[in-house]
Amino acid sequence: MEKLYMNDKKKKKIKIDGTSLLSFGVAIFAIVSLIAAGFNQISFALPAVEDPLPDNFKTKEFSSATDMLFSDTWTGRQIDMHFAIVDGKNIPVFCLQQSVSFADDSQYYKKSEEPINDAGLLYLMANLYPNVTMSPSYPIQNAQLNNNHQIETWITQAAIWYYLTSTSTEPQYNALTSDDLNKIKNTHAIGFTRSVLTPAQMTGYTSYDHTLFDSYTVNSKSINKLIEEAIAKKGSPATEMNVVSDENYSISEDGKYYFSSVINVQGSVSDPSLGTYKGFSVVISNAPDGTIITDENGGEIKNLDNMAPGTKFLIRVPADKIKEATQISISVNGNFETYSGNRYSAGADTQEITTVKLVSNVVGTGYSFEIAPAPDTGITTTSTIFFVGLIVLVCGIGIVYANAKPVENQQ
Fold it and tell me: Domain spans of the chain?
């Protein structure tokens, strides 16, 4: 890396000998004047939501008797299978309001101003069907009746309603009673008829010692455990981008380049279970030709679109291109994978539906500094050597005179 002279704004004892005097003299006139416009700049915000579904789509409700799902304990209450039709495919969607009717064969539209910003709901849905595979802890009875993911659909929808009733203060989202919640938690199996279910009509159960919320697991966690964790996570998820630098500035020994201090880009997700920081990209603006980004060893970083997490860098600017104070800026975009979801509605008094997916998001922040040209002293290297020699000569004469004078007095 280029040898640098640092201005760290700290008092230090500097020892100067004959070999370093010239270099020091040149460097002292060439210290870079930089004014930071916000070191430690932070962007802390929700990422822009990338749509798991298009802005509008047609819906489809159950198409057969086995798409109407009934609990063995929550008698008389059914959960129906609902789908968004996208490119000819049926994508499962889930209802947010238990007491509102679903609009079958209707055009649903995204509620752009109301994305799902509840970390608990995002976490719960991200860990339920269809985003993950649920596994029963024990062999289930009548598994052939679960030919269209009926068990997973019932568990997911029931868990969403359970969570919303437990956490929301809005009546349209907490319409279930404590008795409803108790019956949901104690469901052992589901069937496809409103009448009292017989063992031959039920699927999902392992035995009456285990409920669906206990016996089905995701990553070794029961559905009960997932709901508990989701309730604890309720709040707004956020991604953070932080550009960290300090007030040290430098110039290369040969005076050809100005260097910023080391810049450290930090990214994180407020809850690691809701997403991952993947890296960042950098764009330089208002910089003179020849400005580049280097690593800490002085090597040029050419791929600025995909910089790995933890990468530190410097900005190198040709000194001869700085004729006046110049504000140089960089834009930093953090790349994240996060869970996101939207609300969709077919109009007033219709059920809100949603789905959640892992998507790529970008969160931006920036950093800027001002660089000014070194003052022109008008002294060339030759002149500097001449003046240094002259000073040494004058000092030598003074020393000789001072040593000789006492001898004359004695005479």
Answer: 4-15+31-48+237-342+357-372, 62-101+118-233
CA nearest to 154, candidates 54, 62, 58: 62
Give the integer Cα–Cα distance in Å for 103 and 82. Answer: 10
Q: What one-character DSSP code corresponds to residue 65?
A: G
Can you name the residues that pair with 36 across neighbouring β-strands?
A: 369
Determine the Cα–Cα distance for residues 344 and 112; give it in Å rounded to an integer: 9
Q: Are 288 and 326 in contact (CB under 8 A)?
A: yes
Decide: helix, strand or coil at residue 171.
Answer: helix
Whether cis (ω within 30° of 0) applies to the bond prior to 136 is: no
User: Model-level pTM?
Assistant: 0.69
pLDDT one-digit tens code per residue, 12-64: 222 223 333 333 232 322 223 333 333 344 444 444 444 568 899 999 886 66
32: nearest Cα among 400, 369, 385: 369
| C-beta of residue 124 within 8 angstroms of C-beta of residue 271 | no
Tokens of 145: 């009746």
* Phi and psi, residue 283, nearest 5°: -130, 125
